């Protein structure tokens, strides 16, 4: 009993999801009828078949069978060559069975799936998530992981930042997301982020979307409860002091107080109109040689469109001495009616007196203090800023109406700046304005040293207006100014271009200042 077998071809190649075939020939060289059982053995047996799987042959006859290979497009069919065998077993004489050896080569394919778990994060100081990377291809995978957000206001820690994954397996990486600035109060802010999974040698990659909801540290209900408790404490102290008994001593009679002295009034003439408004400055100004930009809409009622410095009648300087103030009066900042005199208030008065609109400060004001005329002009200016569609209209978030604070001073300094005046390389007084506006916008906390710098800026502005808007301190718009612009733009949610464009100036004029954390100066 003998037989003859042949496999053609002995080696085949096939794509995952495709099909390839080989032919098996069997000849009965014996002298009796025989039935042969056919089967595939080896790794490809799971996705290979023989048709027919039985051949019945007479002596001297020959039969053929087709072997088909159909590997699935999955990690179950690994890429590369895989040996196999076709077993031919005579039913009557199984001891004479034969195994023909062949080889099938599966082409490689890659497919990556990834998921951000969870994709929506919530936190005050940080958010934690995990990235799952699945290799559903039939070759090993090496991939890098990166994260970015739309506004570039988050920082990330990815561990690890690259993974190696075998076919049919998954790998995980941890990601910690932190905001660059903590929100102490206010409403929650949502940051959109994108996680990119890039396979080695492939620039396209896979991108996953997610969000990080940054919650304020102090919830609104806590602020409300705190306000109620403070108000109750103030009321209690006021009632307690009101019911304190008066104690008279016999050491002497009370001397009459000195009669109040009249406060010298400023003999200010109508001042020349300010240049057109336009700009907004970056935070962190350090040098009085910096400047601020005025919003494109001229927030606060808007200056006229005359750009010629020195227009209008000459300015009559204010009295050289500050008016006397009550010894119990409060110092600024911020400043309100009844506060102690200050050069910073005098600058604001000069600025208000040159608006050339309905909010212009009328002659007769008292230099250095917020009198009735100054209060009326200041309130009018602030209300106009909040109605100006070209400004950011955020001034009253920091300064209540009638309060001369850092948002209002940043806006006043920014009045009259045009983007072309403060472009890179410019050297003029408008750059000085821009730096002063940035300085006020960045002062979440104000020290005595800060006030010294603020008053230096104020004296610069006062001299500028006293000279008829002709002789102002000149500053160069250099890389330092560009850095301040970028930092401010990041603080207020603008693209960090480093150019004081109309949008940036509009933010300054609108009173947009940085949050509770003061940036480095």
Percent of sequence in beta strands: 25-35%
> What is the overall pLDDT average?
80
Radius of gyration: 41 Å
Structural class designation: alpha+beta
Largest sheet: 5 strands, mixed
Q: How many beta strands in the DSSP annotation?
A: 20
State the helix count: 8
Structural commentary:
- The protein is α+β, with helices and mostly antiparallel strands and 521 residues long.
- Helix content is 21%, strand content 26%.
- The strands form 5 sheets. A 5-stranded mixed β-sheet has the order 2-9-8-4-6, with no helix packed on it. It has a 5-stranded mixed β-sheet with strand order 11-18-17-13-15, with no helix packed on it.
- β8 and β9 (98-106) form a beta hairpin.
- The model is unreliable at 244-314 and 516-521 (pLDDT under 50).
Observed structural traits:
521 residues, 21% helix, 5-stranded mixed sheet, single chain, alpha+beta, 8 helices
Summarize the structure.
The protein is an alpha+beta fold and 521 residues long. The protein has helices at 220-242, 343-352, 372-387, 406-414, 429-441, 448-466, 479-491, 502-509, and strands spanning 3-8, 11-14, 20-28, 34-42, 48-51, 54-57, 62-69, 80-90, 98-106, 112-117, 120-123, 127-135, 141-149, 154-159, 162-165, 170-179, 189-199, 206-214, 427-428, 475-476.
């Amino acid at each position: 009993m003998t037989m003859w077998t042949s496999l053609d071809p002995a080696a085949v190649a096939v794509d995952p999801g495709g099909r390839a075939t080989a032919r098996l020939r069997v000849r009965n060289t014996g002298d009796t009828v025989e039935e042969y059982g056919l089967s595939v053995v080896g790794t490809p047996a799971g996705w290979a078949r023989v048709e027919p799987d039985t051949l019945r042959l007479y002596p001297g006859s020959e039969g053929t069978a087709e072997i088909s290979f159909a590997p699935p497009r999955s990690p179950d069919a690994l890429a590369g060559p895989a040996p196999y065998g076709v077993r031919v077993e005579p039913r009557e004489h199984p001891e004479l069975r034969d195994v023909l050896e062949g080889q099938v080569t599966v082409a490689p394919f890659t497919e990556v799936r990834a998921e951000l778990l969870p994709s929506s994060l919530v936190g005050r100081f940080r958010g934690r998530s995990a990235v799952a990377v699945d290799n559903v291809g039939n070759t090993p995978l090496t991939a890098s992981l990166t994260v970015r957000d739309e506004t570039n206001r988050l920082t990330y820690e990815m561990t690890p930042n690259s993974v190696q994954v075998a076919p049919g397996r998954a790998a995980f990486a941890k990601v910690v997301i932190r905001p660059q600035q903590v929100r102490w109060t206010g409403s929650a802010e949502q940051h959109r982020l994108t996680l990119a999974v890039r396979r080695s040698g492939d620039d396209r990659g896979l991108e996953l979307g997610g969000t990080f909801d940054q919650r304020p540290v102090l919830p609104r209900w806590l602020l409300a409860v705190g306000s109620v408790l403070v108000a109750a404490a103030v009321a209690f102290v006021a009632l307690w002091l009101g019911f304190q008994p008066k104690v008279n001593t016999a050491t002497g009679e009370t001397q009459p107080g000195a009669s109040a002295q009249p406060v010298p009034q400023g003999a200010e003439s109508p001042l020349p109109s300010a240049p057109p408004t336009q700009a907004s400055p970056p935070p962190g100004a350090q040098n009085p040689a910096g400047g601020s930009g005025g919003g494109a809409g001229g927030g606060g009622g808007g200056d006229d469109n005359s750009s010629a410095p020195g227009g209008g009648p000459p300015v009559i300087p204010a009295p050289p001495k500050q008016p006397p103030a009550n010894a119990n009066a409060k110092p600024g900042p911020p400043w309100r009616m009844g506060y102690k005199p200050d050069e910073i208030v005098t600058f604001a008065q000069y600025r208000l007196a040159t608006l050339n609109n309905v909010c212009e400060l009328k002659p007769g004001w008292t230099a250095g203090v917020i009198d009735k005329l100054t209060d009326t002009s200041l309130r009018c200016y602030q209300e106009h800023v909040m109605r100006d569609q070209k400004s950011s209209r955020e001034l009253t978030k920091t300064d209540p109406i009638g309060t001369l604070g850092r948002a209002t001073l940043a806006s006043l300094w920014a009045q009259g700046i045009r983007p072309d005046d403060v472009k890179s390389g410019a050297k003029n007084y408008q750059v000085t304005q821009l730096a002063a506006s940035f300085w006020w916008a960045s002062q979440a906390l104000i020290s005595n040293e800060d006030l010294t710098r603020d008053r230096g800026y104020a004296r610069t502005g006062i001299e500028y207006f006293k000279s008829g808007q002709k002789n102002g301190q000149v500053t160069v718009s250099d890389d330092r100014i560009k850095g301040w612009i970028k930092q401010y733009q990041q603080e207020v949610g603008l693209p960090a271009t480093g150019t004081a464009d109309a949008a940036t100036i509009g933010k300054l004029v609108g009173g947009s200042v940085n949050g509770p954390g003061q940036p480095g100066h």
